[in-house]
Design a protein that fits this description.
This protein is α/β, with parallel strands linked by helices. The strands form six sheets. A nine-stranded mixed sheet has the order 2-1-11-10-12-13-14-15-16, with helices on both faces. It has a five-stranded parallel sheet with strand order 4-3-5-6-7. Strands 17, 18, 20, 21 and 22 form a five-stranded antiparallel sheet that branches. The longest helix is centred in the N-terminal third of the chain and has 17 residues, at about 30-45.
Length: about 525
């Protein structure tokens, strides 16, 4: 199914339903269809056609959604660039993708203009928020264009979105996602628009991230109203949920924690929330347990995927978040542990856990998570070798390590590049991090391996303490020693004020290794904070 059809169908079924609520502006699905058609006409007038790239640098807004569907109508390729990127990164991504048109938000006008002499392929610049120099102003461009229907001819396997990876471990790669990448997930997991069913979905996750784009596609196909927030801010988020009576939200764990920690959390009525989907980074057990208490009438879903998989590939559904009172201790412990899993594969994708030779590993054994199905990426843009390394024998190697339990639930064990090898023993950073974060004084934690002459690698923990809390290095090491195999415990603890994270909440282990990757000294004993 062609991505443009998601909007075409919904605008025919529920044309008068609000599609977008954004900063006082409200657009119905008929409005969104018309504005996307007008923008497509304008872009065609600028020479955009099949296969041309149309890039954006802007926070969440209605114009990005209009651009997504306008590009699809022209069989062009939508390229949402990370608006937090630095000058060199923007130059790299633009020169890799060579968009014919670049749409830019006001706060990035001067930056992009300064890079203009070095940007390849860009023939037209569009100013999204008011006039700027010789750029095309967005609203007059849309308003002055002809409103006409487009009948795209793109095939299921044609690229519709080029999305750059977050680049937490190196240079971003352009992930080629096809119409089938999105329609496979949407058609198998989302109900189409229903005139009798009205839902609102708050959009906070940026559209340069696959979770944000997936949320938009699902909302449009499902006929859900998108309540758009430019960027996540806890108070504004709660105000929007309360005012608009939002039903659904997609959040990363750090967002959920910031909400519950905010002094104003209990001042707002968030009872309209029926579903909170979370993902993009590991969810600490203590955070999800608290969320289940704070949102007793909300169903929680843990969705796991990555840019290369186009959407969710495994899911821990609402029923697995329920822990009834009065369970036998062993059953309660099993259900609590299950909360740290990423659930089971969705029906439209195959997921295996394999060893270094690509052979499936037994239950309980850590291996790399690989996936196969019609909605995986087509490959990396102009990077054939990287594509061959990632897609082997029809399977996409995710770089994520994990293991299955006896009932088929999958548990993450960290990134392959982050796994620690100590004296021949393999150590999962996530297992040690979960243990540390169960300590009452610990607010956040990350674990890395540091080089060691005798052991190959040793375990170092970087820890953030809760406000006013105190703990020593020795105390946290002993806490882990009592709960983990001895070789897994940290041998060094460094206390910091906060961990470096990317916008989706993933800890930047590369940065931590640069800062704290020095070998552990025998008498290591950093001063505790708190």
């Amino acid at each position: 199914m062609h991505v443009a059809e998601f909007l075409t169908l919904t605008s025919a079924i529920v044309p008068d339903r609000e599609a977008i609520v954004f900063e006082g502006k409200r657009f119905t699905f008929a409005d969104l269809q018309e504005r996307s058609n007008r923008l497509a006409s304008a872009l065609a007038g600028l020479g955009v056609g099949k296969g041309d790239r149309v890039a954006t640098i802007q926070v969440n807004c209605n114009a990005l959604i209009e651009t997504l569907f306008a590009a699809a109508k022209l069989d062009a390729v939508f390229v949402p660039l990370n608006f937090r990127a630095k000058a060199d990164e923007i130059t790299y991504m633009v020169n890799q993708s060579e968009p014919k048109v670049l749409l830019v938000g006001r706060r990035y006008y001067d930056l992009v203009n300064s890079l203009r002499p070095n940007l390849k392929g860009v023939e037209h610049f569009i100013a999204l928020e008011g006039p700027y120099q010789d750029w095309h102003p967005y609203d007059p461009l849309v308003d002055g264009a002809e409103s006409q229907e487009f009948f795209p001819e793109g095939q299921d396997d044609d690229v519709v979105v080029l999305m750059f990876t977050a680049g937490t471990t190196g240079t971003p790669k352009g992930v080629m996602l096809t119409h089938n990448s999105f329609s496979s997930y949407i058609l198998n997991n989302v109900d189409p628009a229903d005139p009798e069913t009205v839902e609102k979905n708050i959009l906070t996750v940026p559209l340069y991230h696959i979770a944000g784009l997936q949320a938009v596609m699902a909302a449009v196909y499902g006929g859900r109203t998108l309540v758009i927030q430019r960027q996540f801010e806890p108070v504004e988020w709660m105000e929007l949920v309360q005012k608009e009576r939002v039903d659904r939200a997609m959040m990363v764990p750090t967002m959920l924690k910031q909400l519950m920690d905010h002094p104003a959390f209990r001042r707002y009525d968030l009872s309209s929330l029926k579903v909170i989907t979370y993902g993009a980074a590991p969810m600490p057990l203590e955070v999800i347990k608290r969320a289940l208490r704070e949102f007793p009438n909300t169903r929680f879903i843990n969705a796991f995927g990555q840019t290369e998989t186009a959407a969710t590939i495994t899911m821990l559904p609402p029923e697995d978040h329920i822990i009834p009172p009065g369970l036998p201790p062993e059953e309660e412990e099993k259900r609590l542990k299950r909360l740290t899993s990423i659930g089971k594969p969705l029906p439209d994708v195959e997921v295996r856990i394999v060893d270094e030779n690509g052979e499936e590993v037994p239950v309980g054994v850590v291996g790399e998570i690989v996936a196969r199905g019609p909605r995986l990426m087509k490959g990396y843009w102009r990077q054939e070798e990287a594509t061959r390394q990632t897609i082997r024998g029809g399977w996409l190697y995710t770089g994520d390590l994990g293991y299955r339990d006896e009932e088929g639930y999958i548990y993450l064990a960290g990134r392959a590049k982050d796994f620690i090898k100590r004296g021949g023993e393999m150590i999962s950073p996530e297992e040690v991090e979960q243990c540390l974060m169960s300590h009452p004084a610990v607010d956040d934690a990350a674990v890395i391996g540091v080089p060691d002459v005798d052991w190959g690698e040793r375990v170092r923990a970087i820890v953030v303490l809760k406000p006013g809390a105190k703990a020593t290095e020795e105390e946290l090491i002993e806490f882990c020693r009592q709960r983990l195999a001895s070789f897994k415990k940290p041998e060094s603890v460094v206390f910091v004020d906060e961990l470096p994270r990317n916008p989706m909440g993933k800890v930047l282990k590369r940065v931590l290794r640069e800062q704290f990757g020095q070998p552990i000294k025998p008498a290591s004993n950093p001063a505790p904070r708190g």
